[in-house]
Amino acid sequence: MKILKINGGRKLNGTVKIGGAKNSAVAILPASILCDEEVNILNVPNISDIDALKSILKHLNADVKTISENSLNINLKNIENKEITEEMSKKLRASYYFMGALLGKYKKAVVSFPGGCIIGSRPIDLHLKGFESLGAKVEYKDNIITITAKELIGNNIYLDVASVGATINIMFAAVKAKGVTIIDNAAKEPEIVNVAMFLNSMGAKITGAGTCTIKIKGVDYLKSCTHEVIPDRIEAATYIMIGSVLSDNLIVENIISEHIEALTQKLLEMGVDLKIDEDKVYVTNKNKLKATKIRTVVYPGFPTDMQQIMSTLMTQAEGKSEIEETIFENRFQNLYELQKMGAKVNVIGNKGYIIGPTRLSSANVNATDLRAGAGLVFAALIAEGETTINNTDYILRGYENLIEKLRKLGAKIQLIQI
Ligand code: EPZ
């Protein structure tokens, strides 16, 4: 197990370069198996979720070459369809993308239930219902799911919930199906647009990605392409919020400012001093911060992935802040860890309340999931003294070169294997 030790209360200044979006890259790597030749993927984040996916691709006999720290060449000429075992699937949530990709390519997928952060029940019923709508049969034996289809025929699919994963997975199953598939009430996150652009650059015929109605016309063959992963809007948000408290002059670069508008507008309301360019944000902690209210909703609303980091910022804002979490049923565990550091918090149903400003003090805390862990790193950077954060594997799943990036800004942080 790895732990983080952070000595907080220090100013963090300088420039931080945002990496490729985890939630785009973890879909693009499995999608590569739909290609009949080879793909080059640029700006892939150097995180453990990507390592897990690379090993699954190698298990399928794909030839995965690292061109540089953030670029991959994946040759699919010798790929084989094999079962994705429980041990592989459990490593991350995004292993479920091999269901749609293997079904779409071979009309058969044998995959176990995925892993992922325990922020709710996280069913995959909409994914499986979508596959069935295309003519697939879904069978379960223990934790193994076998999805087969004589033929995949395009169909109209309505998603009860605008699920990011289900939208992408159904796209994968539909790109080589016969005829046209329409996904209604599709999720509109920027990562979905990035994945659709990847598939289209191989020759897929997808229109409407980024809107609530996506149309996919099946094709027979998908050729080589080179594609770039978009910047990670959640990583960008994390550093901008850290800078809102701890920086006299922080530059967060390599972002798409449109993708983080829900956050930057909220921070401006709180009194954070931001200068927003198209591809970078300048952050200065000049003013007293005011408490605020957020309600997590699907894109382009306030993202659920940002609320746990925002709750740490709220401990430093004057007044009573409120977070209403409408996407996941169990995403407030981090508040109880913040409480150990002196935060004044309360949870009633799907609402979390934070009273500030409070002086945070160092403690021994536990990361309960990826973004909860990021919120605790933020809190440890604020608190005087040395904070220990346990279960940091969660955090390293989603933040590229976290220790190096924070050290470069002046943080006193070390990762210890115990
Ligand atoms: C993706 O998870 C992201 N993960 C999550 O980011 C993100 O929080 C989430 O989308 C929402 O934006 C990846 O992309 C790998 P959903 P996903 O399907 O696809 C319900 C992070 O921190 N639902 O959009 O699992 C579900 O229970 C992670 O980077 C069904 O009911 O999320 C939830 O309430 C955490 N049935 C809601 O939809 C289904 O079949 C949204 O889930 C699927 C989902």
Name the CATH class of the largest domain.
Answer: Alpha Beta
Name the CATH superfamily assignment of the largest domain: Enolpyruvate transferase domain
What is the count of structural domains? 2
What's the overall average pLDDT, rounded? Answer: 97
Which architecture of the largest domain per CATH? Alpha-beta prism
Q: Uncertain spans, ≥5 residues at pLDDT below 50?
A: none
Within the CATH hierarchy, at the fold level, what is the topology of the largest domain?
A: UDP-n-acetylglucosamine1-carboxyvinyl-transferase, Chain
What is the CA–CA distance across the termini? 6 Å
Topology:
Blueprint: E1 2-7, E2 14-17, H1 22-31, E3 38-42, H2 48-59, E4 63-68, E5 71-75, H3 86-89, H4 97-106, E6 108-112, H5 125-133, E7 137-141, E8 144-148, E9 156-158, H6 164-174, E10 180-184, H7 190-201, E11 205-207, E12 213-217, E13 225-228, H8 233-246, E14 250-253, H9 261-270, E15 273-276, E16 280-284, E17 293-296, H10 304-314, E18 319-325, H11 333-340, E19 344-348, E20 351-356, E21 364-366, H12 370-382, E22 386-390, H13 393-396, H14 402-408, E23 412-417
Parallel strand pairs: 2-14, 3-13, 9-10, 17-18, 21-22
Antiparallel strand pairs: 1-22, 1-23, 3-5, 4-5, 6-8, 7-8, 10-12, 11-12, 14-16, 15-16, 18-20, 19-20
Bound molecules: ligand EPZ.
